[in-house]
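S.,

As promised, the zinc ion run. Input:
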Amino acid sequence: MTSSRTMTQTDHEAMAGRRSLAGCPVHSLREKLRGVGLRPTRQRTSLGWLLFAKGDRHVSAEMLYEEAMRARVPVSLATVYNTLHQFTQAGLLRELAVDGAKTYFDTNPSDHHHFFIEGEDRMIDVPSDAIRVAQLPALPDGMEISRVEVIVRLKPKAG
Ligand SMILES: [Zn+2]
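Predicted complex:
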């Protein structure tokens, strides 16, 4: 206890301001960007808003670009790619390479696995404890495992 002074009007306003800002999704997005060392530019904030405001999901650069066009966010596909990679490097997204041509970005960067529905190009989360990897190969010298991600590919039952 260092001070016993009563709160001034300004203190009250400052606190009320903080409360309303804390509840503001755009404000918390800017804080999230700053927290990982990214300057919250207009483009990062707009794309981050599109990415993170809809809960956990898996989006490709093309999907996010289309969403940005629909939302009238003026960005190029190249900017969308760059921003997704910056977010990934900062740990806000996880990159999922499903096959050579297709990369998805997961807005949930915590450890988990995936179902991939072939033909629909859709990914569904699988909790990390739902899959147990029983055997892994011997590792090359000087290497350790960073993480193990399993993609279980699904297709409609035949017949
Ligand atoms: Zn996921």
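The radius of gyration is 21 Å. Confidence is low (pLDDT under 50) at residues 12-20.

- D.
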